Amino acid sequence: MHIIKRSVLSIKRKLGKTFLLLGLVFLLSSLIAGALMIDQAINSTADHLKQRMPIITELSIGIEVTEFELITSELVREIGALPYVRAFDYPIRVSALSQFHYHVPELEPGVTTNHEFGFGFEEINSSFRLQGVSHPEVIHVTYGLFDLAEGRVFNSLEMQPLGEGVPTPVLIPSVVAELNGLSVGSVFNLYDPLLTPPENANIPEGGFVGLTWEEIWYHPYNVMKLIPFEFVVIGILDLNYHAAPHLDSFFLQQVVYNTFFIPNWKAQRLRENSFEHEVRYHEIFASEESYFNEELFWSVGAFWILENAEQLEPFREAAEQILPEFYTIVDFNHIFDPLQDAMAGIGIITNQALIFAIGATLIMLSLLITLYLRDRRHELGIYLALGEKKIKIISQILMEVLAVAVIGISLAIFSGNILATHVSRELLLNEIVDGWSAPFRSEVPSGIEFVGLGRELRADELAELFDVSLNTQTIMIFYAVGLASVIVSTAVPIIYILELKPKEILTQGKIG
């Protein structure tokens, strides 16, 4: 009789033991499947997070350095041409006064701060930060750090100076738009102060030396003229932070929430006006308490977004060969450390669970199959006495066990997926969220965060990325691990039994 037919008859003849084997395989395979799927979900979540939160780098210089070469836009573009760079920009950042109200971030319970301050001008309520961009698509929007709620980003023509009388396009935050009744198409002025003493001012040569800040503040020559700059809203940006858990987080959010995006050329013009103001100020009020670094005033910031995390070190080495002395490249990658620590801890737990499940499978199936073969010792002895080859007997037993195991493993895929989903949602996800949120509750925000290129990942976003759904790779790994465990569990007792002689098998009261 062919071994396949013998296997089918044996399965049908011993349905009780067959269902017992099926149940055990199903239970143990469900544990293996759950552990594997959670492990795969952790790895895929880490990959998705790094895609969602791009690898961003910026310049850094030693705080003790007093003389250094300034970074130019040409040098930034040269580094941006390196093959590791996906995108880059060199924003010119200035501030401007406004009649609008700025947005005050929400604070967590128990956190307080005094955010009110004055500007000394009637009807001037606030100061907004203007961040220049050199690329029309705006990197913050391209990489999903800001959502374009309404309108559009810049076009290539708007990256060049516009004609006189033409309002400058601007992107504004949605919270500021809602607070001040602004929408796409709204035209408004922002103001930059310019020190303008009276025409008959009698200013001594070398200016007024030795005045205190209070004396300068109330000096009759300390008169400011507001220079208006006209803007038109072309787009409204949306960014949603959690409530600020501490003051550093509050000030970070206050800056980012009240940042307007404008073309770099316009930011440069406002900076030229600010430079003229600073020069006048220090010519008239040459206070020893004041400090003005002209070279530093004209420096540009810079950031580069890399293709992936693996290119960070090669990029750093290549960029630092181009950069002047004292400059280094720093990255925002440290925010992943608490997350990776939490996920590594979870990975240890799932690996231990996986090892335990595989070990339990090997031991329990080996014992069950040994008992199963004990009841069939006479059958196996007869096969051997009739000259049946051991390899055929082994193949028959393996076929019987594997036929049942494939059914149990196939059912376990779905039960394991349900198990993994519930465990990860209830336990693992909370662990990861806690690990991810840690740096925002204990660390001072970095420069990259203050330009809006880094933010907290909300729990709902992480839940969306944490995918425990079935995929081809996970299924293939699961079948390979499950079937290998069953084969090993079956092969060991079969080999042990078949080492005996036919006569010994037929005459022994028990196996072994």
Give a brief rundown of this model:
The chain is 52% helix and 14% strand.
What structural keywords apply?
512 residues, alpha+beta, 3 domains, four-stranded antiparallel β-sheet, 11 strands, 52% helix, 14% strand, elongated
What kind of sheet is the major sheet?
4 strands, antiparallel
Strand content: 5-15%
**Domains (count):** 3
What's the SSE pattern? Answer: HHEHEEEHEEHEHEHEHHEHEHHHHHHH
Helical content (DSSP H or I, runs of 4+): 40-55%
**Strand arrangement across the biggest beta sheet:** 2-10-1-11
Would you give an account of this structure?
The chain is of the alpha+beta class. It folds into 3 domains: 220 residues, no CATH class; 52 residues, no CATH class; 209 residues, no CATH class. Helix content is 52%, strand content 14%. A 4-stranded antiparallel sheet has the order 2-10-1-11, with helices on one face. Helix 2 runs parallel beside helix 13, helix 11 packs antiparallel against helix 13 and helix 13 crosses helix 16. It starts with a helix and ends in a 5-residue tail after the last helix. About 1% of the residues have low confidence.
In terms of topology, how is this protein built?
Layout: H1 3-13, H2 15-52, E1 56-61, H3 73-80, E2 85-89, E3 93-98, E4 126-133, H4 139-142, E5 147-151, E6 168-173, H5 174-180, E7 187-195, H6 213-217, E8 224-238, H7 247-257, E9 259-263, H8 264-284, H9 294-297, E10 303-306, H10 312-322, E11 327-331, H11 336-374, H12 377-385, H13 390-442, H14 447-450, H15 459-465, H16 472-498, H17 502-507
Parallel strand pairs: 4-9, 6-8
Antiparallel strand pairs: 1-10, 1-11, 2-10, 3-4, 5-8, 7-8
